[in-house]
Amino acid sequence: MTLLQLIIIAIVQGITEFLPISSSGHLYLTSNLLGWPDQGVMVDAAVHLGTLAAVLIYCWRDIGRMISGFFMALRGRSTPGGKLLLMLCIATVPLVLAGATLVYLDATDIFRSIEVVAWATLGFGLLLWFADMYGMTLRRIEHLTAGSALAIGCFQVLALIPGTSRSGITMTAGRLLGFERAEAARFSLLLSIPAILASGGHAMKEIAESGNATFTANVGIAMAVACLTALPAIALMMAWLRRSGYGIFVIYRVILGVGLLAVAYGFV
Known about the structure:
The structure is a single chain. By secondary structure, the protein is an all-alpha fold. The protein has one domain. Helices cover 76% and strands 0% of the residues. The chain contains eleven helices and no strands. The longest helix is centred in the last third of the chain and has 29 residues, at 181-209. It is globular and about 55 Å long.
């Protein structure tokens, strides 16, 4: 892939990764419209690391509390930050088990088709609408229990299906469990940290071991671009959700899903 292709992918990835609109759907659409071959799971995962940097910057207060809570826990003291860290660990377990199974079976590309992306973008977008319409808005992150964290983690496994949107499905789970809109998004952002570290770290190891120094350097540039585009996207999304709901994202997903179906079945 050329540097220009990687930069465009990074921009698309950065803008869409944490919005509940499916970054993989946008990447498929971008590649299709521009006549590019699929960039593959490895490049996707590596560019994700750039978006991870944006999460670390935006959520630095929560991360600081969790780090402090970890050391306080070692001294036998319970803190809100330590509890939040524990909830993230619990919520991450299902994805780790499912992802490891796919890697073991060499089946990471099993769902990677434009038809799957299209139907997942549409179907899980409608599920987000249902959750946001009928879910209560009573709970905050402080009200997380081990059971609700595990439930959100099980929903996150569905993100292994391209087009589902990892952020979208975890926000959907949060809304179904009665969490406020911005709080569901906040936990989704934090939950992305271990998920991206696991997939992105493995991808970068493979890229570095490929021996292609130019490609490795280009991926590094793309990661920086992804970070710079993801940060304002996160800030704008959180500002929106403090004042409104997920409806605008659902409408966008329906339009995108229908567009992808049209491409997949040869109508355009």
